Amino acid sequence: MNKGPGLFTDIGKNAKDLLTKDYSYDQKFSVSTFTDAGVALTSTAAKKGGISTGDVAAQYKYKDHVIDVKVDTESNISTTVTFHEIVPSTKAIATVKFPQYDSSKVEYLWRCNTSMNMHSTLTTAANLNQSPVVDFSVTLGTANFAFGVESTYETKLGSLTKYNAGISVKSADYDASAVLADKGDTLKGSYVHYLGLPKRSAGVIEIARRFSTNENTITAGGSYAIDDLTVVKARLNSNGKLGALLQHELKPKSLLTISSEIDTKALDKNPRFGLALAMKP
């Protein structure tokens, strides 16, 4: 299954992660523990815009099946059950939310060999309500090349409300992709170049074009591994937003992340700062 092209959402994901992952301008603290019964417990507290929030999550794994339960401070409960390989090369996911039942959904993923060298991935998801929104995606290719399409069909409207297409080319040194989204209104291209192995140091550039507004946005950034425990990242876009972060591994799987962002076109505005601490045994 690793020979396949992955999901449609994987197209451009490496560039997106380099430019957005771990950047946060809130205060967040999480602690994870593991019980003798094999249950992983995670408690998270966060402060955003002066508002404090928190949640508790539990995860239980049995063979290739996973059960996740999450409860937040507003008494919202989300339960997700993931089944792997009930049928060969498949994965099924069921998510039930309380009290927002309309947000509950089921998902299904199937991977198959279409030829000796080509593989395909099919996903579908639907909300569990009277007028479900159904998502489809199909990706065709190999581990190094992929072409895919995705769409959303709203049964209440009886029409497609989203259709996107994308292509990606990968190697050990680079990852290039292009996605046509927003019903053809947005074209986004990205290129990641890795600076050796492991891929902890890399440079990235992303160019987005919105045809309806004749607007272009260019974002450049990257990451650099100072040592085995410390990584720094930075990004700058054509709108003048400059962001940076430092992430340090205090001990295995326990991370301290410090983020900041300034508007270089409005230096009189206060910069934004964020702090995240994730502790694991």
CATH architecture: Beta Barrel
Full CATH superfamily name:
Porin
- Report the uncertain regions: none
What percent strand? over 45%
Secondary structure: helix percent: under 10%
State the helix count: 1
Task: Give the terminus-to-terminus CA distance.
Answer: 31 Å
> Mean of residue pLDDT?
93
**Gyration radius, to the nearest Å?**
21 Å
Question: What pattern of helices and strands is seen along the backbone?
Answer: HEEEEEEEEEEEEEEEEEEE
Give the structural class.
mainly beta
Q: Could you name the CATH topology?
A: Porin
Largest sheet: 19 strands, mixed, barrel
What does this structure look like?
The chain has 281 residues and is mainly β. It has a single domain, classed as Porin (Beta Barrel), CATH 2.40.160.10. The chain is built from 1 helix and 19 strands. The chain has a 19-stranded mixed barrel. A hairpin with a 3-residue loop joins β9 and β10 (145-154). It is globular, with a radius of gyration of 21 Å. 16% of the residues are buried. The mean pLDDT is 93. One of its GO terms (molecular function) is porin activity. InterPro entries: Porin_dom_sf, Porin_Euk, Porin_Euk/Tom40. Pfam families: Porin_3.
